Fold:
Amino acid sequence: MENLDLPEKTQEPSVQSVRRAIQILQCFGTDESLTLTQISKKVGLHKSTTYGIVTTLKNCDFLYKDDETDKYRLGAELCRIAANVRVNLRTICLPHIRELCDITGETVNLVIPDDTSVIYLEKTESQHSVRSCTSIGKRLPMYCTAVGKAILSALPLPEVSAILDQSRLVAKTPKTLISKEAILSQLETVRADGYALDLEELEEGLVCVAASVLDMQGRPVAALSCSGPKQRMSEERVRRIADLLKLHARQASYIIS
Structure:
């Protein structure tokens, strides 16, 4: 990250705290994850002072802490801000959404991650009378949606484990995976294939395919999906749609990064 040219002296203590918080966030421009001691040394602050600011940033989701390694990394809130300020995901992805809908004839969605859930940011609906219907602003869990699994597959394993531990794993249909081990195993397949599937896990009769959109650090900032009734989503058609989604997700990722 580019360092901000901030004044060394400030009249208000609160402004100084903001400057220190920004400096802490800037530590992660080249180092993906850091311990509290490493952060303290980088910003030149006493460890106790650093701890207070880091804890506040973590509580506000600007930083994420891996409890197994005691290391911190940039959090989900920065991803959301980046989506809204630094790059306009909707503007970048909307042409891809429309083209995918035109080609497939099915409903295409754009979602962003939010804690253990995804939020629907944009959509273009199928013209079929029987179709998948979603609403912008809707929130759904990650563990049982194709978009959620696409995002999870692009995250580090400790982060995925933490998200699943915080999720209420309940069966939405008889096909929903509610075992953490089973979900983690499924995510290995998603990583290998480059796309995720929801085969009636969220809603009976609904099939969804999704691929993640990545930022310059390789972190998932969004996911594109295509969904439709299972009678139109044969295995062969799902594979073709998956290839299209991966292509458009890569193109969007390239623009973002």
